[in-house]
Amino acid sequence: MAGPEGDRLLHVNMTDQTTSFEDFPAEWKLLGGRGLSAKILNRDCDPTCDPLGADNVLVMAPGVLSGTTAPTSGRISIGCKSPLTGGIKEANAGGNPGQHLMKLGIRAIVVKGQPADADKRYGLRIDEGNVSVVEADDYKGMWNYASCEKLLEGESKNASAISIGPAGELQLAGASVACTDQDQERRPARHAARGGVGAVMGSKGLKWVLIDPGKAKTRQPASKDFNKQNKAYSQEYLEGPQMFKHGTSSVVPMANMLNTFVYKNRTEGQSPDVETLDGARIVESFEERGGGMHNCMTGCIVKCSNIVHDTDGKYKTSALEFETLTLLGASCAIKTFDEVAELDRLCDEVGLDTIETGGAIAILMDAGQMEWGDSDGAIQLLKDIAEGTDRGKMIGNGAVATGKGTGHKRVPHGRGQAIPAWDPRPLKATGVTYAAGPMGADHTAGLVVNPGLGPDEYAQASQECQIVNMVCDSSGFCQFISPTLTLMANYYSLLYGEDVTPEQLGDQGWECLEDEWKFNSAAGWKDEDNGLSECLVDEGIGPDNAMKFDVSLDIINQSKVRFAPRPELYTARASG
Amino acid sequence: MAKVLIPVVFQGPTRGESEAIVEGDTIVACFDLVEEKFPGLRELVIDPATGEIHKFVKVTLNGELLERDAGTLAQSVSATDEIEVIAAIAGG
Asked: Which of B8, B54, B91 is opposite residue A422, by nearest beta carbon?
């Protein structure tokens, strides 16, 4: 047996609401997720297109290992030309849609065109044997939780959904795409958040995708040793320190010590509210309120996702992550995790990236147009976004739009996208990823949390992490299970019954980065513009405010020229 | 002497060094000696207020995960022992 066969690409034309299948190109067999999205976009999308126009292409691509029994491997990538960066974008999410699509042999959904009537809403139904675009006007304007509950009611218990909220329908550049998780309630709590991918889905009139895998089985590997590999890898992980046992929010105090738990629109690297925003407070709340840790997708052994209850013991949100606690909490001087949990839920409901939205609100506060720490005001702002008020649209369009709208100059961003929690001033190699990487300011593209590096090491450290993360985000593995190129090569070998080497995957990762840079170059990006906003270069944080993003353009651009691969590349773990 | 392995996250104080060989006879003594060599590292691992290992850090002795309490840190070490500091990094 040669491993999974008969895979297809599902094409959806939103101009006439028709669908068709294409045999999956054999030369892309080892590509999924982000890498596959880049191939499809380079083939099918004009890089100069209007990101919100008919010519943009929206790709929903699970990873190579999604739908198999490999642990924590069911992630899905959403790709397109970004309305925020103007370049190629990939954002990925957990939940079950990736698993379900791959069980059906659908390697990607490729959405093109645009309905003539912008007021129309459609849904895409993928049942085990049938695919159809259906009218969905009755979902117009619905928030994600209510929309998915209505959609999944009466459907198979195995079904999952991908959806957008009002922010996506309004085509706001901070809009996310939600995926339902594997819990019984199938909550739309897992978001492909960055880059405005939800706005592109909204521009196509596509409100939701319903996937019912029916009785489709897990993807069968070529080698029986696949299951032995699962057992060994799971055992290794479970017997290890399990650093994400209490979720990413447990990183808060360490980030604070490293001056990357940023406060008041990144004017300081540490927050005085670190104790009340620490994920340890969330874990402590489980005993009295309920909630706890769970896995967001079937087959996940990491279980990093928290379920947060309110003081009445009722479900509030999932998952409340480190990034959200930083951007919607510390950076806005909002003090408690309960306040941030409320904002996080609203972002999931309206369909917004918590990083971009938190960045925008902090700019509004910094501009003096809202009090620092005003969580009630922030809640109202998120409701304004859903209602499409002028102020809501400004915030919903992200950090740069809010800077323009307020006339405020301190707008921390890279390529038009708000800076994530991990700050490029103490973590300069991560800053190189933000400045020259094809994703703009996106920590998942290459997070190097190593404050001990010297200037001559920034470019290579960034590049190596970008390669490993690219392959990880193409594999379906979650970055939090920290796979290496060597592990992923072994899995691919066992899946397809052919020898795949770590070196081959390193080359693949680099080729996919080059695909993305090629797209961006054609879209108008120039290397001389690679950098971060002035406030990150001129204004310091940390002791004596000495930490600035003082990396030269020459070093930044060295990350785009491949270094000779070091042996460490193949054992480095993905981190995001 | 014991070897203390330092994760990349904490290599700011060590200026990129990933390990230190020190002559401490207990775990905490090893971290005291590492502090002399690389000022600022100890407080990243051991909470100065409680004397315990920080909640967000894990420490292993020859691959075995240690409890966080100060009593554990008083445990004896020998010349061939390896103390590894592990720290989480993730965004979400």
From this structure: B91
Q: Do A66 and A207 belong together in one domain?
A: yes
Q: Report the residue of chain A nearest B17, measured CA to CA.
A: A452
Q: Do A452 and B12 touch (CB under 8 A)?
A: yes
Distance CA A290, CA A313 (A): 6
Run of H or E including A294: strand A292-294
Domain span at A518: 428-570
Boundary residue ending a domain (A163, A190, A211): A211
> In this predicted structure, what is the pLDDT of residue A288?
97
What is the DSSP code string of A333-375? T---HHHHHHHHHHHHHHTB-HHHHHHHHHHHHHTTSS-TT-H
Q: What is the maximum alpha-carbon separation in chain B?
A: 40
From B8, B44, B91, residue closest to A450, measured CB to CB: B8
In this model, does residue A1 exceed pLDDT 70?
no
Which among A251, A319, A457 is the nearest to B89, CB-wise?
A251
DSSP 8-state class, residue B67: P
For chain A, the domain total comes to 3
Portion 28-57 of A in contact with B at CB < 8 A: none
Q: E strands of B29-81, at which residues?
A: 57-61, 64-65
A207/A305 same-domain check: no
Q: What amino acid occupies position A251?
A: V
pLDDT digit string, tens, across residues A150-172: 999 999 999 999 999 999 999 99
CB-count burial class (<10 Å; 0-12, 13-18, 19+) for A1: exposed
CATH superfamily of B2-87: Beta-grasp domain (3.10.20.30)
Shortest distance between the Cα of B28 and any Cα of chain A, in A, equals 20
Rounded-to-integer distance, Cα A123 and Cα A464, Å: 40
For B10-35, give one letter per residue: b (16+ CB within 10 A) or e: bbbbbeeeeebebebeebbbbbebbb
A433 and A514 inside one domain: yes
Chain B interface test: which of A176, A242, A258 (most B C-beta within 10 Å): A258
Co-location of A448 and A356 in the same domain: no
pLDDT(B8) > 90:
no
Within a domain: A405: yes
Single-letter amino acid code for the residue at A73: S
A199 and A264 belong to one structural domain: no
Chain centroid to CA A56: 19
What are A334-350's pLDDT values in tens digits? 999 999 999 999 999 99
Q: ipTM score here?
A: 0.78
**Assigned domain for A234 exists:** no
Contact A426 B12 (CB under 8 A): yes
Give bridge partners of residue A317 from the DSSP assignment. Answer: A308
CATH classification at residue A461? 1.10.599.10
Reading the block at residue A532, the tokens are 């971060």
The residues near A541 (Cβ < 8 Å, ≥ 6 apart) are A259, A262, A266, A267, A268, A269, A423, A425, A426, A547
Rounded to whole angstroms, the Cα distance separating B14 from B41 reads 7
Strand partners, A318: A307
Which of A172, A196, A211 delimits the end of a domain?
Answer: A211
Q: Are A262 and A408 members of one domain?
A: yes
Euclidean distance between the first and the last CA atom of chain B, given in angstroms as a whole number = 39
